[in-house]
């Protein structure tokens, strides 16, 4: 990806979110920054190729074009026989999207891949980044998919209800662990070379989301 946004260091922010997500245990493909003279590019390995061969991939949008909730994502995973342990990857991503302010969580940003055994698996996460527009009206920054019928003001109770419905164990400790990780965002931002102004903006948004999640 190219750092073409006029005011936002998009590639550095995405790399900082990659570092943060990996620390939280999210499965992602190896990624790095390629530094140029005045900009940086975000490079990530493809997961739709393996040993030079194409891997069969389907997005949630392809499987269920009307999917507009995380529950629909979990239902699709269960319907195609994804190993139960991999549902935790989807839960991790949901929690990270909420706490990190990735509101561009539409149904094309979740995928499944078919293994050599012919079974479906949850694909590594991708396009995980800060996508809140601080200058936009609040309704622009709602999540694209609902969580327990909400697209904003999401609390731990909402996250835990999804965990309960789909048998995700130790969900509450994971939420707390993730809060601890996202609260260290300035460390990840500085490692990725994000400027202090944007680090402050993202840190403020994350703090507000942490407060909301802990509200109940």
Automatic annotation (TrEMBL):
**Stretches assigned to the HipA-like C-terminal domain:** 1-177
- Domain of life of the source: Bacteria
Q: Which Pfam families match?
A: HipA_C
Which intervals of the chain form a coiled coil? none
Q: Which GO terms describe its molecular function?
A: protein serine/threonine kinase activity
- Output the Gene Ontology cellular-component terms: cytosol
Tell me which UniProt keywords the record has, alphabetically: Kinase, Transferase
Assigned protein family = Belongs to the HipA Ser/Thr kinase family.
> What is the name listed in the Swiss-Prot or TrEMBL entry for this protein?
Type II toxin-antitoxin system HipA family toxin
Organism in which the protein naturally occurs: Bacteroides stercoris
